[in-house]
Amino acid sequence: MNMDFWRDKQVLITGHTGFKGGWLSIWLQLLGAKVTGYALSPPTRPSLFEVAGIDKGIHSILADIRDGKALQREFERTLPEIVFHLAAQPLVRYSYIEPVETYATNIMGTVNVLEAVRKTGSVRAMVNITSDKCYENREQQQGYQEGDPMGGHDPYSSSKGCSELITAAWRKSFFNPLTDGQHRVAVASARAGNVIGGGDWANDRLIPDMFRSFEAGEWARIRHPDAIRPWQHVLEPLSGYLLLAEKLYSSTDYAQGWNFGPDEGDARPVSWIADRLTRMWGKGVGWKQDEQTHPHEASILRLDSTKARTRLGWKPGWKIDEALGATAEWYQAFSAGAQMRQKCEEQIQLFMTAQS
User: What is the pTM of this model?
Assistant: First the structure.
């Protein structure tokens, strides 16, 4: 990552009130970028947005990406050079409850962002952040590669596969250097693994659910302890998004889909993660399997990030034990009343050192 590249760059992030968007906002401010955030109000309470003061030092707009006209007006006001699209309905189980909202946000929201990019001459690079669940899951042992088919059993996964297809269609139709002969805007998509880290309080996610139980002095309930996921700290994929945006800014050669997953050995069963976190918390807590009936979720999911490693020079900075340690440390600091903006900045600096 080129630290100097980001100084004074105009960057717009959709979804800055969420978990990943909040961490990305802090990181970009540390790099000297001028950040505009566009999103709904924080989806949880507490939230990373509130406890880390994400709105300090950025232009924060609380609005809905489903309103395409309002979004376009903000693009015209701020004239971003680089756009990170993270705003989404991000939960698998919630998508079974509210499928229409999920598709409206994840599909038409993406269309609205792409249209705003198309109509705003200042934009040179856009990264659409989707999900590892965008792939048609065949319960295979090997990691999914960028050319594998899109799909999805549940509404969330399906909507993310659709978002990938929409991005590819806009890239070919409106941002194709082969047809217009010049670089105006380069559009890529990015797929990450199961991200963990401090400041995530979403329901039906393993880490937040476990820490809520620990804080209450209760045993955590785990839905699918044998499910295998590509676990990684939130800073891992964010470093990939930042690196990808740098490349896109100067070349359309990188306007493609990219995986940013952990090392193969860090794809672990849910039970393995739960055991590690239980020991790290160290207060006599534990977990047990939730025997209730739950909607379908994939049993095995791995990503192959060979392309990002070889073509972008990207690599993970923390192994899974380091990622879990940083996560537990963050939540324990929050419980102790620490300054969480400072904790976030400290962890970003430690991660950049580890990745260098």
Answer: 0.93
